[in-house]
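As a representative case, the lines below give one protein's residues and fold tokens.
***
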Amino acid sequence: MHSNARANLPPEMAPLLIVALSGRALACSAQRGGYPVVVLDLYNDLDTRSYALRSQAIPAIDGGFDGAALLRMVEKLVSNDCPAVVGAGFEAATPLLEQLAAGRELCGNAAATIARVKDPRAFFALLDALDIPHPEVSFTAPANCEGWLAKEVGGNGGTHIRPAAQAALASAAHYYQRLIPGRSASVLFLANGHEARVIGFNEQLSAGGGADGLAYWYAGAINRIDLPAVIETEIGLKLDALVKATGLIGLNGLDFMMAGDTYQVLEVNPRPTATIDLHDEDFPSGLFHLHLQACRGRLPTYLPESNEVRAHAVVYTPQALTTPAWFRFPAWCSDLPEPGTHFSQPGPVCMVHSRGAAVNEVRRVLAQRQRMIENTILEEAA
């Protein structure tokens, strides 16, 4: 366990608990807003520790939380009434979220809300009722799997997506969604259960032609997107309807594909998404603060505009390896593992960042930095 006794935070303020697959972005935003936090996630990265009063890595089972271990850690580290802020990791573990939330304020969507929007039958029926376009879905295997994806119910981060022909390899429940052409995008928004406020639109970056198992994993995003006005207006209106119908609160994300002046919704992520990285600095008190306010029913009346382009990309290892003990990650990296960390299977090593005034230059620098880290760790492992 890590304890940060030197955290420059108000001593009179009680800490909040952050639980997520990765809590770094939320913890960073919390520190900007002056909120002391205790962080439990799968990695307990070096920079996460610097933002937290205390932090600890949760044991993992099949890429998710060891629920029993998580609850024991919570009982040991924080009081029974410590408010909890949750990120990714509970989409397929809503009973665990109910146990975590028992007796404490949950700053985020309730387990029942998450279960509803992550239930593909209920979610796509709701989209139809709200006249929100989406790709064709099926709950039985298509006769011809060509052009279809299989998605595990309650999946997150793209790790649950595979070509439909490979669905038989998955043990979890899944549904099928038509693969459609276009640009992959998302919108980060605040909600108070009745209406939404758009924080920003993002273009999702492609994982490219790497290892097959990583093809659909979250690869990163860029916060400046050439979005047709008709799509921006339409999505803003539909978000209000979606929030009113589902009761979503706090920070959430909506993934969609767009082609020309049309869009189709893929899924809702009912919790703060990784793209808070790309917008947090636009808000003096941080998006963590606005998330708490929205969960308590208050939405901002004014949202600042920024012309700075920001992007991040995940560096994945496609194989088992150990990060070099001598290597120190550059300042433009985050989610930093300790030197000499061993990765027993494919997974995220760190995240690289780029910023500037021009989209193409930010993209170029981001790709260069990503290759630099990949080459360093992969050459060392060879």
Observations:
- The mean pLDDT is 90.
- The chain is about 25% helix and 25% strand.
- Residues 2-107 form a domain with the Rossmann fold fold (CATH 3.40.50.20).
